[in-house]
Amino acid sequence: MTSETKKVRVAVYTRKSVEDAEDKQFNSIDAQRQMCENFIAAKAAEGWIALPDRYDDYGYSGGDLDRPAYQRLMADCEQGKIDKIIVFRIDRMTRSTKDFCEFDEKMKRLGVGFTSVSEPFVDTSSPMGELVVNLIVSFGQWERKTIQERIQRHFRTALDQGYFVGGVVPYGYKLENHCLVPDPETAGNVPHIFRLFIQSGSVKKVATRLYEEGIERMPGRPWTTQSVHNCLTNVRYVGDANSHGKIVKGKQPALITRDLWNKAQERVKKAAAAPARKVVNPETVLFSGLVMCGSCGHPMTYRWSRKDTLGVRKYSYFVCQQDMRKPVSTCEIRHVSVTTVQDTVERELETIMLASSSMLVAAANATTLTPEQIVTGFRRHSFWQGLTTVNRRTIYRLMLKSITVFKSALELRVILPDNGAKDELVRSHYLPKDAPEDSDVRMEAEGCLYVKVPVAFRTVSGRKQIIRPGVGAAGDRPTQQMLNEELAQGTILKAFAKAFVWMKMIDEGKVTSISQLAEEVGLERHYVIHTLRLATLSPRIIRAALSGELPDGFSLQKVRKVETDDWEEQERQLGFPAEDEMVGSRVPA
């Protein structure tokens, strides 16, 4: 090779699929590569050099281009690492005419050559060469489809004759010389499984019993409700085979008697024909797909039970879906009362809507209500109870992305309608302006509002309830009588003092979120937010509160109803006379 000869970097591509098993001559990847390397060596005088990188696809069909080595080859071509590609035969690259045309166009665009060892006449640079290549590829595609049809026909014939043609070997059998034979270690358990089901009629009870007896479906994998059901409906155990819905005589020996099989099938049909429970509780559709188990990350599904003692009492639960399938529960959460989760979620959504007018308007636009009606319902503590199932579901779906139940907290991911809602939550101190990554209330990368509500599960009368630390049950609300008593005790001044102390704690960075502040002072978040509102009132209202000159009828309840940030409007709504009226009423000295 002279110094003027340009080096040509040649990549060898090889492929072999299961369909090529009958091709004895080219049954080896190494044989294909050896032939290609010999061809490259013969072209050494022209500067051809075989690249050391191997592009071998073993066990991949030529019907598509979804092959790892092929994709890596294309990536190297696009990076300019390859000058020419060589294959032993064109059908090693692809058996699809369409795929080859796309490959050829791409190689022309990248300036990469293509050569076939056994078809040296291939030259796509001329019309005649392109025609010959297309004919070769078309024949390869026809050959692939012919082989597929022959294999499928063989499988259908084998199934019709009762042979086992592949898949998971049924429990109780093992595979010997492509035939199912009884497994001495597990075959005796199959009749036991059928008898357990006939006695109990429950796949869950069968799975639990097998777990207690130490019988595993596979080493390290216990029986589940689904695997037990699959076992009970597998006709292989009675000596038959299922060939595309048609029951034929199987080649494997039976593991149970026909009488045992028939009794089990009667129980299976009876269970399938039993009328499903009609769930009238709206939680079925309200929370569908929203509640997740924080312990194992799987969805929690709705379930209910009842006790017919003094009347019918119904108990609704969210149950970990993955844990239900196991013979013995291992989930930390397992189940939680629907009512307690719903109370906490609704209270948090109420606080968010009162802190953001955008969220309030979005809820009104999605339902048949007005913002005024929603606020009025919140003030009377009757909003959620007065909603129809349709409107309640609409608000849940509009605002909630997920509800994750943990052992000591509920994590809510709230969907904000726009950036304006975020700004409003920051101004109301619900959302910290620069919340750290571990804050209980923060914005996530997906644009969702993350809210962590600290809770503690306690069992009361056999039911799990959510109890906030240091507070009563989540459903407790202050009554008007309690508010009046607080007012009579002169708590307005104390409330203003709390507001300024808490605001100072936020400004000095002693707490980074409303949740942390609520935990620090041992009060609920919504109460802390309402109290902080006092520190944002007009200076005139604050001075009057500190000096004890508040107008008649002033109350903390009225302050909670004030939604505007305009100082004059605040004063008007709280019963303060206008400044000009006060000046006009003064008597000159």
* Alpha plus pi helix count: 25
Question: What about the largest sheet?
Answer: 5 strands, parallel
Broad structural category: alpha/beta
Helix content: 40-55%
Low-confidence stretches: 21-26, 308-312, 459-464, 468-489, 581-589
Q: Please give the alpha-carbon distance between the first and last residues.
A: 118 Å
- Rg calculated over all Cα atoms: 37 Å
Mean pLDDT: 76
Strand content: 15-25%
What count of structural domains?
4
Record field, number of beta strands: 19
Q: What best-fitting shape do the alpha-carbon axes yield?
A: flat
Could you characterize the architecture of this molecule?
With 589 residues, this protein is of the alpha/beta class. The protein folds into four domains: 8-147, Resolvase, N-terminal catalytic domain (Rossmann fold, 3-Layer(aba) Sandwich), CATH 3.40.50; 173-273, Putative Large Serine Recombinase, Chain B, Domain 2 (Hect, E3 ligase catalytic domain fold); 277-477, no CATH class; 480-580, Arc Repressor Mutant, subunit A (Orthogonal Bundle), CATH 1.10.10. The chain has 25 helices and 19 strands. Strands 1, 2, 3, 4 and 5 form a five-stranded parallel sheet that branches. The termini are far apart. Residues 21-26, 308-312, 459-464, 468-489 and 581-589 have low confidence and may be disordered.
How are the SSEs ordered, and which strands pair?
Elements: E1 8-16, H1 29-42, E2 48-50, E3 55-58, H2 68-78, E4 84-87, H3 90-93, H4 97-110, E5 113-116, H5 127-160, E6 173-176, E7 179-182, H6 189-200, H7 203-212, H8 225-232, E8 240-243, E9 246-249, H9 258-273, H10 283-286, E10 291-293, E11 300-309, E12 311-320, H11 321-325, E13 335-337, H12 338-355, H13 357-366, H14 371-379, H15 383-386, H16 389-399, E14 400-405, E15 409-415, H17 419-427, E16 441-443, E17 448-454, E18 456-460, E19 463-467, H18 480-488, H19 491-507, H20 514-521, H21 525-532, H22 539-547, H23 556-561, H24 567-573, H25 579-585
Parallel strand pairs: 1-2, 1-3, 1-4, 4-5, 10-14
Antiparallel strand pairs: 6-7, 8-9, 11-12, 12-13, 14-15, 15-17, 16-17, 18-19
Helix pairs in contact: 6-7, 6-9, 7-8, 12-13, 13-16, 20-21
